[in-house]
Amino acid sequence: MKILILHGTIVKHDAIGNDVFWMANVLSEKYKVFCYADVYKFENLNFLTLEEVFDFISCSENVLIYHHSIFWELGEEILHRSKCKILFKYHNITPGSFFVNYSEESVIQCEMGRHQTIRLVNKFKKSMWLCDSSYNAQDINGAEKIEIVPPFNVIESWNSINENLETKTKLVNLKKCKILFVGRIAPNKGFKRIIEVIYRYKLFYNQQVEIFFIGKCFNPTYLLELKEEIYKKGIQDQVTFVGEADKEILKSYYLNCDIFLCLSEHEGFCVPVVEAQYFNLPVIAYDQPAVKETLGDGQFVFENNIDLFPVAINEVFKNQFTKNELIKNGRKNFFNRFSFEKIKNTFVNSLKKEGLF
Q1: What are the strands of the beta sheet with 2-6, ordered from one edge?
Q2: CATH entry, 156-338, from 3.50.30.30, 3.40.30.10, 3.20.20.10, 3.40.50.2000
Q3: pLDDT-derived band of residue 154, with 50, 70 and 90 as boundaries?
Q4: DSSP calls for 136-187
Q5: In the prediction, which pLDDT does 287 show?
Q6: pTM of whole model > 0.90?
Q7: Which uninterrupted H or E stretch holds 242?
Q8: What is the dihedral of CA 97, 8, 273, 231, to 10 degrees?
Q9: Mean per-residue pLDDT, 308-312
């Protein structure tokens, strides 16, 4: 028996890429594992050519694990032509409505992807579907076998990485409330809501504050809208777009900021909040289903009342007891649910139900 893992893209510094990489490593303990993607930038994975993929799936003794996160026409063709056992890993697909007025291509891709999900579930309802979260599993209506398996992460490996000294020094010397958000600069991530919260925090409490956004830009039109809103509110000195960051810089922000603020409106899991918990950074979040589920118990999660968030920021920044409680609960959540060994055991136990391992 051999195993092939598929996704449209398998690249480093990407949540799905990391999930594929560590899934392959775990499976390699017992099986010969291969990967295929249209776009890939990941060493230490054994990639097949498309011709080799079609040879692979013609053997009924093999196993195919298909990661589904966006519309992929070729992937669906491979699935339909496959004669081997098929398992799915579902990562959620953002509704296209978030991208209207910014990217027609994104709207089309997302909506086609969500329709593809329905087709795949109907066609492969007897296959096992591994979902990142219970929230994701709601999309897999009709599948007979669903398991909740969080995505593998690489957070614990960051212990061997040194902080970026320049970034660390800059943050330590900033005598203000330092807030962080990590994620692609895209409409579903709640950036306009965050900007409003920062404005109200400064207005209500007259406190020095700065938020750092780390992530690549989805669309220049959307970024321009955000910057116009920032200037209109007069908080250009309170908002910094860091852009993409390597692990050394990112680790420095996690370790030297005061609060992680997540007001995302749609997430299928949200790896950055888990990273924040691991690095003892208290999280304040909007009550979006997958985010609340990922954060676990004893966290600051609020419904859609914008005025609650400045109050929560002030409480965490000023009250060391509150901050320590959030940190303690966050660390407990990570090690009880999302450590490498915990996820590995959940993954392996799910596969055992399919006769693997």
Answers
A1: 32-36, 2-6, 63-68, 85-90, 128-131, 145-148
A2: 3.40.50.2000
A3: confident
A4: HHTT-TT-SEEEE-PPP--GGGGGGSPP-HHHHHHHHH--SEEEEEES-B-G
A5: 94
A6: yes
A7: strand 239-243
A8: -50
A9: 97
